[in-house]
């Protein structure tokens, strides 16, 4: 699997690739116009591919709402494999126009971090002329600004700067993400930025960047390794901003030996540097409840015309219940629980 850059051709509507001049080309896909005179988005995020057994629904909401609060308005997501429950939150952000989703079909049964470079370079090409600046971040990484806004930082850069690099602070993530939504208290308790605060020093090891797509020739995992002539990188002081990396401590995770690495030391409980914590909690909770907080349909809510059909066809068609039915079910459940407790005693 490769990312192929094809030269433009006037009048072309579809594109395909083949392994040789005489090989049968793959199924063609329609071209999408991206050559805008000026980028549609000021700051976007190229989000690393999602993989592993964890359900990422809460992490996705927290990630997107965090970056929205520092000025990001567009997100490029790439999916190789995703469970149906997590896909609900992804579909919602796609519906609102905040997420552009690329789904990559593969012949391989398992797709892991080795496909990360495919996502990075595909997103780089996708963002050209579409976003002015792109933050290169994984789903467990949050950029925090300490001295001024991200927009202020960008405005201070010279035209020759095509890449801005930030240091990283590793934060120990010791538990798995929740499987499903239960209640508001669970969400407030399980948000990553409130649950974990044992971190190492801020270091330049594995630094991450934001970059100008049209001024960058090729990307590596964390930064560009080929820039077009005349462009350079800037390195931002740790007192201005850095990435929080909520890295799993699982012994089976990618790079699981990082806790013993010499660069990550002096672990201690530290104050949360996120200055908009209350607003972030509210935004994440609101989005999660909108997508996952489901209740039954009461028959009393049906419009009159539909209710007449209900009378004819019954519960099986509309899957509704009368409020009195629900109250009776709840009362019987409570009585059963009480009787069970008494018998145990």
UniProtKB/TrEMBL annotation:
A GO molecular function held by the record: glycosyltransferase activity
InterPro entries attached to this UniProt entry: Glyco_transf_92
Record-stated family: Belongs to the glycosyltransferase 92 family.
Annotated Gene Ontology cellular component terms: membrane
Predominant place of localization: membrane
Lineage: Eukaryota, Metazoa, Ecdysozoa, Nematoda, Chromadorea
EC number from the UniProt entry: 2.4.1.-
Any matching Pfam family: Glyco_transf_92
Subcellular localization, as worded in the UniProt entry: Membrane
Protein name per UniProt: Glycosyltransferase family 92 protein
């Amino acid at each position: 699997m490769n990312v192929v850059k094809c030269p433009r051709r006037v009048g072309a509507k579809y594109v395909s690739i083949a392994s040789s001049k005489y090989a049968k080309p793959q199924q063609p896909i329609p071209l999408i116009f991206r050559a805008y005179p000026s980028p549609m988005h000021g700051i976007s995020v190229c989000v690393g591919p999602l993989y592993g057994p964890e359900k990422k629904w809460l992490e996705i909401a927290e990630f997107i709402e965090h970056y929205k609060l520092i000025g990001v308005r567009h997100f490029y997501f790439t999916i190789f494999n995703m469970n149906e429950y997590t896909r609900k939150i992804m579909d919602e952000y796609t519906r609102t126009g905040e997420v552009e989703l690329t789904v990559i079909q593969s012949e391989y049964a398992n797709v892991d971090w080795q496909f990360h470079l495919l996502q990075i370079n595909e997103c780089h090409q996708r963002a050209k002329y579409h976003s002015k600046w792109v933050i290169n971040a994984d789903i467990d990484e949050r950029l925090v600004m300490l001295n001024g806004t991200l927009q202020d930082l960008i405005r201070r850069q010279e035209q020759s700067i095509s890449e801005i690099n930030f240091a990283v602070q590793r934060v120990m993530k010791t538990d798995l993400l929740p499987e499903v939504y239960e209640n508001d208290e669970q969400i407030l308790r399980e948000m990553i930025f409130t649950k974990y605060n044992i971190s190492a020093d801020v270091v330049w090891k594995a630094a991450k960047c934001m970059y100008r797509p049209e001024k960058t020739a090729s990307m590596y995992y964390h930064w560009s390794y080929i820039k077009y002539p005349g462009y350079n990188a800037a390195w931002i002081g740790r007192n201005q901003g850095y990435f929080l990396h909520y890295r799993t401590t699982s012994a089976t995770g990618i790079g699981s030996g990082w806790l013993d690495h010499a660069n990550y030391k002096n672990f201690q409980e530290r104050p949360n540097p996120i200055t908009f914590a209350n607003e972030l909690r509210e935004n994440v909770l609101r989005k999660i409840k909108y997508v996952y907080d489901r209740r039954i349909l009461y028959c009393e809510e049906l419009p009159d015309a539909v209710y007449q059909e209900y009378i004819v066809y019954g519960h099986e068609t509309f899957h509704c219940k009368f409020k009195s039915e629900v109250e009776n079910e709840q009362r019987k459940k409570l009585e059963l629980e009480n009787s069970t407790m008494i018998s145990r005693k």
